[in-house]
Amino acid sequence: MLKEKAGEIAGNIWIALNGTEGMTAKQLKKATKLVDKDLFLGLGWLLREDKLSVDEVEGELFIKLI
Q: What is the pTM of this model?
């Protein structure tokens, strides 16, 4: 089920970001070993739950937990 997969991916993203000051989308993709579509699926899940802050810094997405 896609909903379960999204939750698992969101958990992996949260684990990767926990304890950091944040990462760029490129760094997060490398840390989690996710393909783009899965990365953005998980980011959407966490954004919907108000768990992330996403800003654009010098043309790149910068993601951190809130």
A: 0.92
